[in-house]
Amino acid sequence: MKSIYAAAALAAFAFAASPVFAECTAPSPPQSIPDGNTATMQQMLAGKKAVTDFNNATNAYLDCLKSEHQAALAAAGPKVSDDEKAKLDKTETDKHNAAVDKLQGVADRFNEQIRVFKAKSTKG
Q1: Which of 40, 44, 111, 117 has the fewest CB atoms in 10 Å of its CB?
Q2: What is the average pLDDT across 70-95?
Q3: What is the number of other CB atoms lying within 10 angstroms of the CB of residue 88?
Q4: Using N-to-C axis directions, what is the helix angle for 41-76 and 82-123, rounded to 10°?
Q5: Mean pLDDT of all residues in the chain?
Q6: Are 110 and 51 in contact, with CB atoms under 8 Å apart?
Q7: What's this model's pTM, rounded to 2 decimal places?
């Protein structure tokens, strides 16, 4: 009888863990990046804070993806097929790379506006 309960508990855990990467929500990028030509110092600082917050949220999202990936592999068990493991790995890698690419794009745009802002500031 104990083995039936253990099997049921294991099945419930596997069923609960089956929606891979369902709990991780990718963060939204900042609504806008200040225009270095027209922004005030306060607007640039607010933009920096928004980019920093997005960076921190992205890092938390990447940690979540890694944890969910590890949980999915553990739930699949030691006899997981190579194809299933590759599919789980690819899902995690694709989501990870997309988040990093989005973060890099935001950082690049903001850094360009910082250069514009500094160039404008040194002229005057």
Answers
A1: 40
A2: 92
A3: 20
A4: 170
A5: 86
A6: yes
A7: 0.79
Token reading at 42 = 């306060």
3-state helix, strand, coil in the chain (%, to 5): 75, 0, 25
Where along the chain do its domains lie? 2-123
Calculate the CA dihedral of residues 108, 114, 117, 121 and round it to 10 degrees.
-150
The amino acid at 13: F
First and final C-alpha spacing in the chain: 83
DSSP 19: S
The CA distance from 1 to 9, in Å, is 13
pLDDT tens-digit readout, 1-16: 444 443 333 344 443 4
Q: At what angle do helices 41-76 and 2-17 cross, to 10 degrees?
A: 150
3-class SS of residue 106 = helix
Q: For 45-71, write each residue's pLDDT tens digit.
A: 999 999 999 999 999 999 999 999 999
Helix (H) or strand (E) holding 34: none
Residue 23 per-residue DSSP state: S
